[in-house]
Amino acid sequence: MEKQGLVSMTDEAQLRWMALGDTTRQPAVILLHGGPGLPDYLGVVALMIADLVPVYRYDQRGTGQSPWRGPHSFARHVDDLAELLGAWGVPKAVLIGHSYGTDLASRFCLRHPDRVASILLMCGPLVGDWRAGDRAERGRRMSAVQQERLRALEELPNRTEGRKSSCSRWPGSPTTPIPNAGGTGHPGRPAAPAGQLVHGRRTWQGRTRGSAR
């Protein structure tokens, strides 16, 4: 049976959490969803392993059933996870992150290595130079004809040249606000400045343009 509740953070924000399995067992597994700006979607994964280990999930602040409150930065998200572990009585956890969750898991591990039993990163474009290895493996598997066709495609003119990109570079500073953690069209949320990503969309001169994963 799934347990759930709300935990108050030190800045008075509240985060909704869910747990499956025997929560008295250690270490627990924490599933970290992607985004930022997406609510938790890893319930199916939790069901697959809850008979083996206790599995915790939560909606990151400002998403799902976690109300929008307080700052939204990499450092704050790391602090949220640390405070949740304390509230759950989990001294050391196995972190499984997907997409943005890999970045959150990595930053948490760097800040709190003593609180991480192990870490699994899935589809994380924000962790190191993953493209070099991916391209090397792609080249190994492709035939000469396929590689030539790919080179021809990559040399085609960029049809979107001159347009505003729908994606922003992720800042490296842990205190930098997360790019698409602003909000428009939501009561009580500050409007994001022109050109800032908002829940996967870029606002530009009062309109939304493009989409981002």
Textual characterization of the structure:
The structure is a single chain. This protein has 213 residues and is of the alpha/beta class. It has a domain at 3-122: Alpha/Beta hydrolase fold, catalytic domain (Rossmann fold, 3-Layer(aba) Sandwich), CATH 3.40.50. It is built from five helices and nine strands; from the N terminus they run E-E-E-H-E-H-E-H-E-H-H-E-E-E. The strands form two sheets. It has a six-stranded mixed sheet, sandwiched between helices. Strands 7-8-9 form a three-stranded antiparallel sheet, with no helix packed on it. Helix 3 links the parallel strand 5 (93-98) and strand 6. Helix 2 (74-88) crosses helix 3. The longest helix is centred in the middle third of the chain and has 15 residues, at 74-88. The radius of gyration is 20 Å and the shape is elongated. The chain starts with a strand and ends with a strand. Residues 162-176 and 179-213 have low confidence and may be disordered.
Secondary structure layout plus pairing:
Elements: E1 3-8, E2 14-20, E3 28-32, H1 43-49, E4 55-58, H2 74-88, E5 93-98, H3 100-111, E6 116-122, H4 130-141, H5 144-154, E7 197-198, E8 201-204, E9 207-209
Parallel strand pairs: 3-4, 3-5, 5-6
Antiparallel strand pairs: 1-2, 2-4, 7-8, 8-9
Can you summarize this structure?
By secondary structure, this protein is of the alpha/beta class.
Q: How are the strands ordered across the major sheet?
A: 1-2-4-3-5-6
Based on CA atoms alone, the radius of gyration comes out at 20 Å
| Top CATH class of the domain at 3-122 | Alpha Beta
Mean pLDDT: 78
* SSE pattern, N- to C-terminal: EEEHEHEHEHHEEE
